[in-house]
Specification:
heterodimer, A: mainly beta, seven-stranded mixed beta sheet, four-stranded antiparallel beta sheet, about 55% strand, B: mainly beta, six-stranded mixed beta sheet
Chain lengths: ~110, ~110
C-alpha cells in the first residue's frame, strides 16, 4: 500500500458539530483527493488539491471545505455536520493529473452523524 | 461532466468460470480507465488500467478491453477463484475521475 494514512479511522458525531478529517502521505505526491463512498454511488469526488494551497471543487463539494498547508497533509472539514454526510471517506493521492496517473487510496474514515 | 454506468450491479459465478463487468462512459475526451477491487472493509486497490491509445490489456487472469467508438470498456476475469470475490469499480477520467457504482462479484467454491 502507498504511504497514506487517514485519521480518525472511525468517528461518531452529532448534527451541527464541526468535523475535520486528516489525510497524511509520505510519497511526496502532488495531487491529493477526498472522496465519499455511499452504497449505489461508487466513489464521488468532494475536493482535490494540485499543490500546497491549491485546491478545487469536485462533484459533491457542498458542505465541505479543504485545506492543504503542507505537501503531505490534506484536511477535509465538515463545518456543520448533517446526517446526509454519514459516509465512508477516502483520501487518494497521485503523482499527476487524474487523466494521466493512477490514484492510490488511503484506508478510509467511517463517519456517522447522528 | 463525465458519467459512468456499470453493469451488472451483482454477479455470481462458479469457481473456474469467467466473469465480465461492463462500463460505459459519456465524455469522449476521457482517456484513462482504471479498474479497482475493493474487499469488504478495505480500501479500493488498482488491479488494471488502460489508456485510450490501447484497445486491450492483459495481466495474468485479468484483461480489460476498450471500445472508444462505442464509449465502453470491460473487465474480464478468467478462471475465477473465491479470493476474487469483492466489489469492482470502473472509472473514467479526463480531468476528474468518475467512478461507476460498482459490481459485487461472488465466486462460489
Amino acid at each position: 500500500d502507498a504511504g497514506i494514512t487517514q485519521s480518525p479511522r472511525h468517528k461518531v458525531t452529532e448534527t451541527g458539530t464541526p468535523v475535520t478529517l486528516r489525510c497524511h502521505q509520505t510519497e511526496n505526491h502532488r495531487y491529493m483527493y477526498w472522496y465519499r463512498q455511499d452504497p449505489g454511488h461508487g466513489l464521488r469526488l468532494i475536493h482535490y488539491s494540485y499543490g500546497v494551497k491549491d485546491t478545487d471543487k469536485g462533484e459533491v463539494s457542498d458542505g465541505y471545505s479543504v485545506s492543504r498547508s503542507k505537501t503531505e497533509d490534506f484536511l477535509l472539514t465538515l463545518e456543520s455536520a448533517t446526517s446526509s454526510q454519514t459516509s465512508v471517506y477516502f483520501c487518494a493521492i497521485s503523482n499527476g493529473r487524474a487523466s494521466q496517473e493512477t490514484q492510490y487510496f488511503g484506508p478510509g474514515t467511517r463517519l456517522l452523524v447522528l | 461532466g463525465e458519467n459512468v454506468e456499470q453493469h451488472p450491479s451483482t454477479l455470481s459465478v462458479q469457481e473456474g468460470d469467467s466473469a465480465v463487468i461492463k462500463c460505459t462512459y459519456s465524455d469522449s475526451a476521457s482517456n484513462y480507465f482504471p479498474w479497482y477491487k475493493q474487499e469488504l472493509g478495505k480500501r479500493p486497490q488498482l488491479i488494471i488500467d488502460i489508456r485510450s491509445n490501447v484497445g486491450e490489456k492483459k495481466d495474468q487472469r485479468i484483461a480489460v478491453t476498450l471500445n472508444k467508438t462505442a464509449k465502453h470498456f470491460s473487465l474480464h476475469i478468467t478462471e475465477t477463484q473465491p479470493e476474487d470475490s469483492a466489489v469492482y469499480f470502473c472509472a473514467a477520467s479526463n480531468n476528474d475521475m468518475r467512478f461507476g457504482a460498482g459490481t459485487r462479484l461472488t465466486v462460489k467454491p
